[in-house]
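quick q for whoever's on today - can somebody do inverse folding on this one?? i tried earlier but teh output was garbage lol. C-alpha cells:
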C-alpha cells in the first residue's frame, strides 16, 4: 500500500514549481535565512500580542468608566432606569474621558420624555464619578442639539447651552 501511495504523492509534488517542492537536503545558507525569517515572525507576533493586550486593557477601563457613569446618573436622579444614552465625544475627543449621559426623567421609551443630561468626568470613586453640570432636553429630541437644551447648570454647561 505504501508503494502505490509514494508515486502518487510524488506526482502531486511534481506539479509544484521546483522552489516550492520539499527538498531532501537543505540548501547552503538557508539556515541563516530561516533564522532571520523566524526572528521577524516572532517580533511581529510580539508586536500584535502587545497591541491586542493594550486594546483590551483600554477597553476594560472605558467600560468601567461607563458603568460608573450609569451608576452616577441613577444616584443623581434617583431613577433606576437602564435605557441611558452615553455620548463620549460631545465634550471633546474620546481620549478626554469626559462623557455626557442622558436619560428620561419619567418612565417611558428612550427619548420620548424630558431628559436630563449630565456632564461627568474625573476618577471613579466608590463606583461613581463627579457630575460637573448638565442640562435638560425636550421630549422627543432625537439628537442632543444645542438649541433643544434648557435649564443648564454647573460649569460644564457654559458655552454648550443656548442663551
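ok took a stab at it. sequence:
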Amino acid at each position: 500500500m505504501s508503494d502505490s501511495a509514494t508515486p502518487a504523492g510524488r506526482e502531486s509534488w511534481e506539479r509544484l514549481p521546483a522552489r516550492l517542492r520539499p527538498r531532501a537536503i537543505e540548501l547552503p545558507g538557508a539556515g541563516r535565512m530561516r533564522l532571520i525569517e523566524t526572528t521577524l515572525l516572532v517580533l511581529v507576533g510580539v508586536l500584535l500580542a502587545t497591541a491586542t493586550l493594550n486594546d483590551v486593557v483600554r477597553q476594560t477601563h472605558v467600560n468601567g468608566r461607563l458603568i460608573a457613569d450609569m451608576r452616577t446618573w441613577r444616584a443623581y436622579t434617583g431613577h433606576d432606569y437602564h435605557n441611558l444614552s452615553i455620548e463620549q465625544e460631545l465634550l471633546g475627543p474620546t481620549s478626554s474621558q469626559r462623557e455626557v449621559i442622558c436619560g428620561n426623567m419619567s418612565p417611558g421609551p428612550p427619548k420620548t420624555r424630558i431628559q436630563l443630561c449630565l456632564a461627568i468626568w474625573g476618577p471613579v470613586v466608590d463606583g461613581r464619578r463627579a457630575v460637573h453640570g448638565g442640562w435638560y432636553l425636550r421630549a422627543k429630541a432625537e439628537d442632543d442639539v444645542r438649541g433643544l437644551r434648557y435649564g443648564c447648570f454647573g460649569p460644564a454647561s457654559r458655552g454648550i447651552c443656548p442663551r
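fwiw Residues 113 and 139 are 4 Å apart (CA to CA). also The mean pLDDT is 83. so keep that in mind when u check it
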